[in-house]
Design a protein that fits this description.
2 domains, eight-stranded mixed β-sheet, Rossmann fold, alpha/beta, 532 residues, eleven-stranded mixed β-sheet, UDP-N-acetylmuramoyl-L-alanine:D-glutamate ligase, 19 strands
């Protein structure tokens, strides 16, 4: 599913009105009907609405919704955030209809009104937030700030029209203050800010209403952002040939682990096997090989020459070069150590192992950040899987700068370096240098523990081994990783789940045809609930 920015939505509206000739009033009417349908679906007992309306088209949507609710026998009260004569165009037309029907309407004239209105709002079954729309760019001040704060403090549930007032449509950050909606009814497509953190915390349940916008409009691919959905990913799942053998499903090489960090190597290998790789060979410092022989039953190990005790050195390169022959993909970095000699090895490896797609993670990313030539050599054949701190090292930005524009930073780096970037975190970003950005909605705090990132590296590697492209393997690996975290939490609770236990969820998930099948029927015609 595509996600949109405020600018893209304005362009979509413009094309619909100007090129197709569908009047804005028709779109507003469809939007308002969608709002009332969702209210009736989520709150069937609600009889009294307080509808808070701004002066723009968002307020017009609210006025139209109040009228429709009135027609259906409910009680609606409208509260304008300013004088009536401030409403223009379609919103002013909707106001006239509300007035003709005698729907109770009050307008804000001064600070004392807010306290008086609050008592009436508290007596409502629902508060409908139609104050500010997706075009908001600056912080909220004055009485609008007081209205939003008061709404948030009152017990009735809140339904936001298009977007919670005060939420940035693009970044998902509150602009000073923001409505904490229980339900948001948005139009056309979900907005970027509603799906990202912290915006999803303010959005609540998200419903998308088809209001009749031009079906031919799509953002340019260079600007597109897609939300990963299981039924769209189903076609990427590797098919298992009933006549296949272990060689059919690919042999991968993992270079990982050092003294004190053998667990990272084990998690990566097991992740690849769970994703369906036929064979996995782990290249490990020779002194640690006896440990890995015990720790790993299903993967093969290859003891390699060390630089410093317990970590790989440049002496291992020739053996690695030989090992890489016949492999389908290579993972480098989990727990591999930050020693200078390991860095020397990786600088050689990045430049000279050029025939394999590569997943680079953890310590490998730290070394890569100091190796411009290595980065250049990886163009077109690597997936980098940084957390925000590693992304900061790769880009030279602060962690705060990375987190404030996760999509923009990942997109720019992927295109500059021609690598696929998996920027980890809640709502992991997958940046394809040649295509759109993908945003993963599946995640859970159980993934915030040691070893889960190594599992992700292994999953992606396992999908690469079965012939998926870099972008496809990254998307499928990230989605499966998030979903197994969610499933494990649902079964066993949110605390104390180990990374190794997540792997137990993978086979069942990959085989669950119902989960990967067609989307569920829409409970309301022309309206889709998006799980965020």
């Amino acid at each position: 599913m595509l996600l949109t920015t405020a600018g893209q939505m304005r362009e979509w509206d413009r094309r619909t009105i100007e090129e197709l000739g569908i009047p804005g009033l028709v779109l507003m009417e469809n939007a308002a009907r969608g709002v009332i349908q969702v209210i009736r679906h989520c709150y069937p007992q609600a009889q009294k609405l307080a509808v808070l309306c701004g002066k723009g088209n968002n307020g017009g949507d609210g006025l139209a919704a109040a009228r429709i609710f009135h027609f259906l026998g409910g009680q609606a009260r409208v509260y304008l955030s300013g004088p009536r004569d401030h409403l223009k165009g379609d919103a002013a037309y909707q106001l006239k209809l509300v007035e003709k029907l005698g729907i109770p309407l009050r307008e804000w004239t001064g600070p004392t009104d807010t306290a008086a209105f609050a008592a009436e709002w508290a007596d409502s079954d629902l508060l409908v937030d139609a104050l500010l729309g997706t075009g908001l760019e600056k912080g909220i001040t004055g009485h609008l700030r007081d209205w939003i704060r008061t709404m948030n403090e009152l017990p009735p549930p809140k339904v936001a029209v298009d977007i919670p007032s005060g939420l940035s449509s693009d970044s998902g950050r509150p602009l000073g203050i923001c409505t904490r909606a229980d339900v948001t009814v948005t139009f056309g497509m979900p907005k970027l800010g509603q799906v990202q953190f912290p915006g999803c915390r303010f959005t609540g349940r998200l419903f998308v209403v088809d209001i009749g916008l031009a079906p031919t409009y799509h953002p340019p691919e260079a600007e597109a952002v897609e939300l990963l959905e299981p039924f769209r990913l189903a076609g990427l799942l590797p098919r298992r040939d009933p006549e296949g053998h272990k060689g059919t499903f690919g042999h991968v090489l993992v270079l990982a682990g050092s003294l004190g960090k053998t667990g990272a190597a084990a998690m990566t290998c097991l992740g690849a096997l769970r994703a369906g790789a036929g064979l996995v060979t782990l290249g490990i410092p020779e002194s640690l090989n006896p440990i890995m022989e015990v720790k790993l039953t299903e993967a093969m190990t290859e003891p390699l020459p060390e630089g410093d005790p317990g970590s790989l050195g440049p002496e291992a390169f020739l053996r690695i070069q030989t090992l890489s022959k016949g492999k389908k993909a290579l993972a480098v970095g989990p727990g591999i150590s930050l020693s200078a000699k390991t860095k020397s090895l990786l600088q050689i490896l990045f430049k000279h192992i050029t025939h394999l797609p590569m997943v680079v993670d953890a310590d490998g990313l730290t070394h890569l950040a100091e190796s411009p030539e290595g980065l250049k050599a990886l163009a077109g054949r690597a997936i980098l899987t940084p957390h925000p701190g590693e992304m900061a090292r790769l880009t030279g930005l602060s962690v705060e700068a990375v987190q404030s524009d996760r999509i923009g930073v990942a997109r720019a780096y992927a295109r500059e370096k021609q690598v696929v970037v998996v920027l980890k975190g809640p709502r992991t970003v997958i940046a394809d240098p040649e295509g759109p950005i993908y945003l993963n909605p599946t995640a859970h705090s159980v993934l915030a523990s040691g070893g889960t990132g190594d599992v992700l590296t292994g999953l992606i590697l396992g999908f690469l081994s079965q012939g998926l492209s870099l972008s496809a393997a990254a998307r499928l690996g990230v989605f499966v990783h998030g979903q197994i975290g969610l499933q494990a939490a649902q079964k066993r609770g949110e605390k104390g789940i180990l990374a190794s236990e997540l792997l137990e969820e993978v086979p069942g998930l990959l085989s669950d045809q119902k989960f990967w099948g067609s989307p569920l029927p829409e409970p309301i015609p022309m309206i889709k609930e998006v799980k965020i």
